[in-house]
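Researcher: Here's my situation. A collaborator sent me these components and asked whether they could plausibly form a single complex. I don't have experimental data yet, so a predicted model of the whole assembly would be a useful starting point for our discussion.
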Amino acid sequence: MKMRGAKAMLESLKREGVDVMFGIPGGSVIPLYDEIYDSDIRTLLMRHEQAAAHAADGYARVSGDVGVCISTSGPGATNLVTGIATAFLDSSPIVAFTGQVPRSMIGKDSFQEADSVGITMPITKHNFQFYSVEEIPYTIKKAFKIARSGRPGPVLIDVPKDVQEKEADMKFPKDVDIKGYNPNVTGHPKQIKKAVDLLLSAQRPIALVGGGVIISGASKELMDFVEMLGLPVVTSLMGKGAFPEDHPLALGMIGMHGRKAGNFAISDADVIIAIGCRFSDRTTGNVNCFAPEAQLIHVDIEAAEIGKNVPCHVPVVGDAKQVLKEMIKIAAVKAKKHPEWTAKVKQFKKEFQPKMDYDDVPLMPQRVIKEIMEVISGDDIVVTEVGQCQMWAAHFLSRTKSRTFISSGGLGTMGFGFPAAIGAKIAKPERNVIDIAGDGSFMMNCQELATTVVEDVPVVVAVMNNHYLGMVRQWQELFFDRRYSGVDLGEVPDYLKLADAFGANGIRVEKPGDIREAVKEAFDSGRPTVIDFVVKRESNIFPMVPPGGCLKDIIEG
Amino acid sequence: MEREHVLVALVEDEPGVMQRISGMFTRRHFNIDTISVGHTEKEGLSRMTITFWGDDKKAEQIIKQLNKIIEVVKVTIMESDSIQRELALIKISTPDENARREIVQYANIFRAKIVDVGKDSMIVEVTGNSGKVDAFVKLVNPFGVKELAITGVTAMSRGSKPQENGK
């Protein structure tokens, strides 16, 4: 089939099942946008490329499918960088297309030329540049295969302008072979048996669940397995939602701002089975005193994660779902429970209930989270920004289903939440989507209010407005003698006026009694809505493990 | 225990593959001592020999991180009995006849080759493992080494089994 490069790109995307993209055009992607004009793929016009990448990422995390974003060359591509790095650290499958100057102009420091492939090499799972027109269908096929298989991740394709314009005879392959890429899905049977044996010999076993369980779609298998063995379950931030947090075995998130019960339980464990989690320093605290008595079973599809941050006793390289299925088969025969340990864990849970029922004015963020939690359903999607707001949501807001808690874990990208919420809403338009934000984070991508209004994407932003970069301020309060340096955001903007300026809905809430109504009203309005929650300026997120501390050293305010 | 490791990576001969590999070493604070690259018996595949210093845990991480790179087809650690060679070209000052004669003698002992003779200098080509090359350079150093070019190690395991394809 003879066609222009740009058309071949869209044809390939259709064959990959893409029906929505997020982007901003520019000089070197005009031919591509010319094809988009005739295409039935919906392409949302974002207001900043960073937001396009986050939206694609949010779409991917909620749908489980690949998110696609587009930018022009040079500044368009460099603006994508933060979004791509965010997706990379959290293993989210996106494919990013960046325009590039024509092949004959590359290397001459041409207008809007940047080395997009070089720049994104360390923050992509892989990246490509089209060297020819004919390769387009093959390279796109490869890109999607790499992005969505194994441990997913972002893939970038740099598209010189002349490649978009030139015609060639195109062949669209059904599958492609990538010589050096063959993710190991099936766990080794001997290792699986060894792992189960170790778990069965344990007195105080625990499961640590990461985002890999969500990516693998292994929630059901996880439930069967832990119920069979009576394993208490803790999660990392990325694992939130993989296991219902209202389940009797659930101890919630562990880590720097984890639940005390979880931090205590894992510190006392003698065997840990970690599934799809990479032992981030925010999860482990000081690794030298992380679960000091525990032997570790580590199940991960990425061999390089095993033994990277903490020593591992039984490595199992494979897909979480497949490995858990095999483990269930073996464990079913010999399942053993640990009444003493279970009682102790229950005691932890009872003892350390998070407190949320504050009546203060200005509002306490914990109360806001509580009311939001009571309004939304299990299927609704909570997205977060980064900082105190993120940790309030992660700590206090329980989730029960996979892909309903979306947060920038690894990179900790402020400004992620709002555009990611746009992607989430596009993926699941029938569900409510709420972005738990701080005023600092929301401001970093608040221009996307324009996108939500023009493209009619009714997401709700709940701004915990304390006029501070709150997390930094909290650290300065605790560890820098209250010397508040560079954190005071002042009394601006007026979020009602800001929302109004974009044609969005704005609500201000000052009293705890009004929280619930405001959230309901926002969802019911069917319009993009900013809720300005006036919270106590110096509110903190506790408990907290001081930096460099052990999980057990978690402190209350 | 820290020691020198030698690994061989078969990589797809694609643009940017050197940058991917060296970039991975840099950003994870792994140091490359030497690196040498060339094509192989198979079209489209290049072979890299990388030497680095570190303990076994570090070596394991490096191999795993290399395997993550899509274009890396196979990584093998070279055992200490593997064949390891590097080649050096050394331009040595030869102010007089005596120096010249002595250097030729040393070259013979090391089975090195004189590849160029000028008015007051000569170029010697020496091949061997790193120890031998270093020893030769040390030996001729008093004459004045004007220029030194070393390829870095290239290596192959003993026996008939070739390094397989596929991770």
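Model: Some features of this prediction you could bring to your collaborator: The mean pLDDT of chain A is 97. Chain A is about 40% helix and 15% strand.
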